[in-house]
Amino acid sequence: MLNAFDYLLDTASLHPEKIAFSDKDKAVTFSELLQCTEMLGKAISDKAVSPKGFVAVFVGRRVESVIGMLACLSAGYTYVPVDESSPTDRIMEILRQTKPFLALYSQNSRVDPSVFSDFCEMMSMDEAYGKYDPDVRRYLSARRKKVLDIDPAYVIFTSGSTGVPKGILVSHRSLIDFTDWMDTAASLAADDVLGNQAPFYFDLSVKDLYQTLKTGCSCHILERKLFMFPSLLVDRMNEKKITAIIWSTSAFRLVAECGILEKKSPVTLKKALLGGEALLAKHVNIWKKAVSGIKITNLYGPTEVTVDCTYYPIEREFENNEPIPIGKACENMEVFLLDENGREVPKGETGEICVRGAGVAIGYLGDFEKTRNSFVQNPLNDSYPDIIYKTGDLAYIDKDGNFVFVSRKDAQIKHMGYRIELQEVENAVASVDGVKECGCTFDSENDRIVCAFSSEIGKDLIAAGLKEKLPKYMIPDVWINMKEIPHTPNGKIDRKKIREQYELEKSR
User: Fold this and answer.
1) Tens digits of residue pLDDT in 1-56
2) How far is CA 304 from CA 135, 156, 180, 196, 491, in A?
3) Which of 205, 65, 94, 102 is nearest to 158 (CA)?
């Protein structure tokens, strides 16, 4: 297989009348999904000025989002999922970087096409559908033959250390290799029903999307509001007979901590695969007690290695205070730990997680310098080109040969399942009128972004000003008003002192 779209072609021929994706309002079978993506794919190609390029897709928690992304692949183009609810400035920055020739949106979305029409042509997906022409399949197949498996399938944007979102390009080959491995690791079948939690602009959703296409299982897209009301969430999971979830650890934790699992549980659930941040044993134990026989797997990996590079099926009991390993490398991937001098660290010692293999991404969109700094020659190999990705995460190897995550090496954090650069948060806060200076830190134990600020205005006004600049999950949870922000002797913000002040105020 050379193109990820072929998963849909194969599964639609095997399970044409089976439900592929559904949301609270709509469901499509695999055959309907194929026809819709091909009709939209033809409409996309009619707008194109080049045989290759980027197409932005405004995504929400709807079946149309899936159709839009797959339609891009059907016509041989790279899709860029864009959160339709993101602040306008952030969306504009993503469009500025990708320079898409077209952006797709649904009439059910919140998107005002006139706001972004200066960046590219806007097309309503709803207006692109017409009478299906069987010849379209041959036409699109010919277009896809011009796409190599090393070409990008999608671009996912994450928080950038310079305060600007960064786009990570992932090839068809990396996506296909990961999907085929995930099929074995997750062991999903056509009679499984996935409960999608991750938004489609977040790389965790890649697993829901392509495991559905690969295995012929069904995927129900759970509304965001259900995670605010866990009782309703469990009811929906039971109503839809959800058998498997591939969730962010924060969503898994939320349900565990709210107490709902002591009253009711998802009775059909058999498997939970989790990733995005550290998984705590106490949350695993709550779920295992509530859901008899559930199989839980801990997954680890940044977007730059095509979602995941290690996995750990939890097959023994863990005490609440025990760390849960992130496991061993996925198939066709090698994971190892290096010290600051590029030497492999001894077993048991902490080092930076480095990754090589099929999942390593192409690099960062339009940023060759950052790509060269993060995707580097393997220092353990001086015989031929051998690119590895330096994650910036620290870990050690335990007595069983499993990697155990320790912490981030820099100021990048994982909060509510999202990768966030604190510098981006700081830049946004500093841009609010009245703010003199600010510095951020992160309380990983309580999953809180802490912002110390020196300002002429209060925290409520600052937070209000951030609503147009940052997604909700990036807005600080704790605010500390300081007359002056502390600095180190070389003039940098002294985050250690900010953290000390936070701990002092927390203890009061």
Assistant:
1) 899 999 999 999 999 999 999 999 999 999 999 999 999 999 999 998 888 899 99
2) 37, 9, 18, 22, 32
3) 94
Q: How far apart are CA 459 and CA 395, in angstroms?
A: 36
Degrees, nearest 5: CA angle 367-205-100: 40
Write down the pLDDT at residue 491: 56
What's residue 108's pLDDT? Answer: 85
What is the separation of C-alpha 250 from the centre of its chain, rounded to a whole number of angstroms?
13
Q: Which amino acid is at 421?
A: E
- E-state strands within 276-368: 295-300, 310-313, 328-329, 333-338, 351-357, 363-364
Q: Which two tokens stand for residue 202?
A: 């977040």
Which residues are CB-contacts of 147 (< 8 A; sequence separation ≥ 6)? 2, 3, 52, 76, 172
In this prediction, residues 406-435 reach a mean pLDDT of: 81
pLDDT value of position 421: 75
Amino acid residing at 259: G
Enumerate domains of the chain plus CATH numbers.
Answer: 18-147 (3.40.50.980), 412-507 (3.30.300.30)
- Is the confidence at residue 489, as pLDDT, over 80? no
The rounded distance, in Å, linking the Cα atoms of 261 and 288 is 10
> Please, are residues 408 and 392 in contact by the beta-carbon 8 Å criterion?
yes
Cβ neighbours around 475 below 10 Å, total: 18
**DSSP-derived 3-state class of residue 112:** coil
Distance, CA of 64 to CA of 494 (rounded, Å)? 46
Alpha helices in 320-453 (DSSP H): 368-374, 422-430
Question: What one-letter code names the amino acid at 362?
Answer: I
